[in-house]
Amino acid sequence: MVGLHESDVKYGGFVVAAIGFLGTRYTVLESIDASSTLTEFLVGQAAFLVLGLGLTVFGIGLAVSSYDETFVNTVAAWSVLGTLSMVIVLVLTLTGTEDAAQLTEFTRSALVANVLIGGSVGGVLTGIRAAMNKRHRRELSKQADRLTVLNRILRHEVLNKVNVIRGYADLDVAEQTTGSSNLQVIQRNADRIDTSISELRAIVGPASEGPVSTRVYPRLRSAINEVRTSYPNASISLDADAPAETRVVADAHLDTAFRHLLENAVVHAGIDDPRVSVRVSSHDTHITVDITDEGPGIPENVAAVVEERDLPEYDDPTTGFGLTLVRLLVVDKYGGSVDVETTEDGSVVTVSLAHSTDNVVDDSSGYGIPPWILVITAAAALVSGVAMGAVSELLTDSFAIIGALYGVMNAGVGWVTHLFHSVVFGLLFAAAVCNSDPWSATRHPAVMTGLGVAYGLFLWFFAAGIVMPLWLQLVGIEATVPTLAVPSLVAHAVWGAVFGTLFGLGVNRRR
């Protein structure tokens, strides 16, 4: 699974979260009547509070998700645009309408709060739609590239070979003086057709055949051995700096990409006994495979095929289709990259592939937490938040004090903000787990439950025992630091147990 690292955080998500939180804190919460009953709160005031805090959670989820940065930034931009649009509408409405002066301060605050949150949410929904359309256009572009290559391979690699086979098969037996040679030609071309069909499956196979966790060394050694067999005069060395069990985001066709790069290095070396060196290096988020040759270098127009997105419009079969297949596999399918560097001594082709563990989940084109784990996290956090709330109500009946953190001493506000905190802390837990290897833990429910309880006790000590009383002091409510009450400990332990169990079961079941 792809982990979460500091460089993988999408800061556009925090823009969405900030809009949601600030809009909620300084508009929605300011318009809530603290003396209202729970029923009055749920009927008239809860909806926009839930929307605002939900927008905050959504932004945090975007920031740590595996969605690519372009997707997240598009959503953030539309969120800002939606909010600013509503600000302009409100200013024009309140300043240009005579009846606006007759509105009470409370009514004016509620109007501002509801309109701004509505604009923010509307902007986010529009941004999601725009980002999905943009991603769909990119997928269509990739599909067009694959179809272009399919057409070229069928014409140049398959049809030409079929014509050769047909020509030799139609030779009159009495005229054949080198029948054995003819049969070898037929066999060689038939083998080439078989190889071409296998390569076609690699790039135009079913959409369900996505990347999986793949051990890099067996695939690399398979490619090296195959090229050594085809070109016995070539010398290919392997320098392995990465661990033997290194896994990357790829599939069973990874050796095809390596084989084409190695063949390109050998065939175009321009000498009878070419030497090629392969070096595997491990980095924080990815591995690199450097293939170095002593040839004249890869022409700029050929290098552009593997480095850029667009395929050339011209059809040049003399260059082969190997590097195009490498681009379609490594860049488009695996989400990696290929860089070409030409020096006076030859060429260096660097393939970068993301690290993975023993499983790769869908949406692996980017780093971070896959969306389905975010959904499981939110659901588990809400259920565990309700369980914790029920225990807290039974033991202390103190939910109004949570609302006081946001300036409203109200039980309804306390419940909503409590569930908001539960989801946020759940997302932090998921980010920490996904930064390592969650699969070994989620296979054992008792282990995940124990991790959840430990995390809940940490929150009891740090968040509830230290941060919360300090926060209460800042808003003018007397509180002791630290506040380490036994009922709170029990409630947090229940939260951790329920959350850890549900999170583990959900992830393991989906896996």
Automatic annotation (TrEMBL):
<feature type="transmembrane region" description="Helical">
    <location>
        <begin position="12"/>
        <end position="29"/>
    </location>
</feature>
<keyword id="KW-0812">Transmembrane</keyword>
<feature type="transmembrane region" description="Helical">
    <location>
        <begin position="446"/>
        <end position="472"/>
    </location>
</feature>
<feature type="domain" description="Histidine kinase">
    <location>
        <begin position="153"/>
        <end position="357"/>
    </location>
</feature>
<dbReference type="InterPro" id="IPR005467">
    <property type="entry name" value="His_kinase_dom"/>
</dbReference>
<keyword id="KW-0547">Nucleotide-binding</keyword>
<feature type="transmembrane region" description="Helical">
    <location>
        <begin position="484"/>
        <end position="507"/>
    </location>
</feature>
<keyword id="KW-0418">Kinase</keyword>
<dbReference type="GO" id="GO:0004673">
    <property type="term" value="F:protein histidine kinase activity"/>
</dbReference>
<feature type="transmembrane region" description="Helical">
    <location>
        <begin position="412"/>
        <end position="434"/>
    </location>
</feature>
<keyword id="KW-0067">ATP-binding</keyword>
<keyword id="KW-0808">Transferase</keyword>
<protein>
    <recommendedName>
        <fullName>histidine kinase</fullName>
        <ecNumber>2.7.13.3</ecNumber>
    </recommendedName>
</protein>
<dbReference type="InterPro" id="IPR003594">
    <property type="entry name" value="HATPase_dom"/>
</dbReference>
<dbReference type="InterPro" id="IPR050980">
    <property type="entry name" value="2C_sensor_his_kinase"/>
</dbReference>
<keyword id="KW-1133">Transmembrane helix</keyword>
<feature type="transmembrane region" description="Helical">
    <location>
        <begin position="71"/>
        <end position="91"/>
    </location>
</feature>
<keyword id="KW-0472">Membrane</keyword>
<feature type="transmembrane region" description="Helical">
    <location>
        <begin position="372"/>
        <end position="392"/>
    </location>
</feature>
<dbReference type="GO" id="GO:0005524">
    <property type="term" value="F:ATP binding"/>
</dbReference>
<dbReference type="InterPro" id="IPR036890">
    <property type="entry name" value="HATPase_C_sf"/>
</dbReference>
<feature type="transmembrane region" description="Helical">
    <location>
        <begin position="111"/>
        <end position="132"/>
    </location>
</feature>
<dbReference type="Pfam" id="PF02518">
    <property type="entry name" value="HATPase_c"/>
</dbReference>
<feature type="transmembrane region" description="Helical">
    <location>
        <begin position="41"/>
        <end position="64"/>
    </location>
</feature>
